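Consider the tokenized backbone below.
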């Protein structure tokens, strides 16, 4: 349910409504959209009479949203959410931001070299996992906290932001110390306790689509975080599991325009994890930019053949350079920047 305030509504009237909702056991989520104050309402709504809300001072209208997700809905906020960082990087604006780096942090020299390469070619955000969820318990599991420290150090040395995947609520404090964007991976998209934990922090959160998740289920995962109070959420399409065996997963390019219609949240695309083969990452990155993605995340390794995980999908530096040049051309063709 959403309350639309009159343009002339005073701050006292808005606060009175928020207090009223609190007294009714509901949670208020104020937002600005099109110059108008909207107050989203979450909680047990069964006993709330819309006519009572409409009668409150300063209220213009009350709308009951039919979609299961409320706060991430385009009906709640018409303008696109733009996430801004202290160094001036924005995700969700007119620029397409590139996140790049190795699939996993393997050591100081490796991550430092990767950061230098990615920064020199235009990437703004350094990716790299320190805690890794692997199908096999015998596979490389990451350097854990030490990996986060190395990732932070490499990013700071090259003037970059950091994104890394968090697997457990017990790691939140370490991630808040070393990471700028906390990534909830596809296997944890419906880890509701982790999502609730992400709602209690102030740093941006990226939610990757689950292997077999529908768009509505994905948006509901984001709703968990936003309902908790953290509105700095972005969605990442990274391929879904289908019957097609020629690629690792099937990148759902159509999800981008669909999401742009349904939600105001920024959209990221990860072609590396989707396709699984480095020679196909560049064309998928071009397609993602053309379809309207706000950010592209790719895996880049100084020496992919030596990588301790996902060797086949990590780009060589010269391939990343090509990706940046071609994606820039696509961005300019549709009126955006890289």
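A designed sequence for it:
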């Amino acid at each position: 349910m959403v309350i639309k305030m009159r343009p002339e509504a005073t701050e006292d009237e808005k606060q009175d409504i928020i207090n009223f909702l609190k007294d009714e056991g509901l949670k208020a989520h104020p937002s600005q959209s099109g110059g108008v104050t909207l107050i989203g309402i979450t909680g047990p709504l069964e006993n709330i009479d819309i006519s009572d809300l409409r009668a409150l001072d300063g209220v213009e209208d009350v709308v009951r949203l039919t979609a299961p997700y409320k706060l991430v809905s385009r009906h709640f906020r018409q303008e696109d959410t733009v996430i801004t960082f202290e160094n001036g990087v924005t995700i969700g604006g007119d620029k397409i931001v590139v996140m790049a780096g190795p699939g996993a942090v393997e050591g100081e020299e490796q991550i430092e070299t990767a950061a230098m390469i990615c920064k020199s070619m235009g990437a703004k955000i350094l990716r790299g996992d320190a805690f890794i969820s692997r199908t096999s318990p015998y596979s490389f599991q990451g350097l854990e906290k030490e990996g986060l420290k190395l990732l932070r150090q490499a990013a700071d040395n090259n003037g970059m932001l950091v994104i890394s995947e968090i697997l457990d609520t017990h790691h939140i404090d370490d991630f808040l110390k070393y990471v700028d964007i906390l990534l909830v991976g596809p296997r944890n998209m419906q880890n509701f306790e982790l999502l609730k934990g992400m709602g209690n922090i102030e740093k941006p959160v990226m939610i990757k689509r689950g292997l077999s998740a529908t768009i509505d289920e994905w948006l509901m995962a984001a709703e968990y975080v936003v309902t908790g109070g953290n509105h700095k959420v972005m969605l990442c399409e990274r391929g879904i599991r289908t019957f097609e065996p020629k690629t690792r997963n099937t990148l759902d390019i159509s999800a981008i325009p669909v999401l742009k219609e349904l939600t105001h949240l920024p959209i990221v695309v990860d072609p590396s994890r989707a396709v699984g083969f480095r020679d196909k990452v560049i064309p998928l990155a071009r397609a993602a930019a053309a379809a309207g993605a706000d950010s592209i995340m790719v895996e880049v390794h100084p020496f992919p053949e030596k990588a301790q995980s996902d060797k086949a999908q990590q780009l060589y530096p010269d391939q990343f350079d090509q990706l940046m040049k071609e994606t820039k051309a696509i961005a300019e063709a549709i009126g955006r920047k890289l």
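The chain has two domains: 2-63, 83-333.
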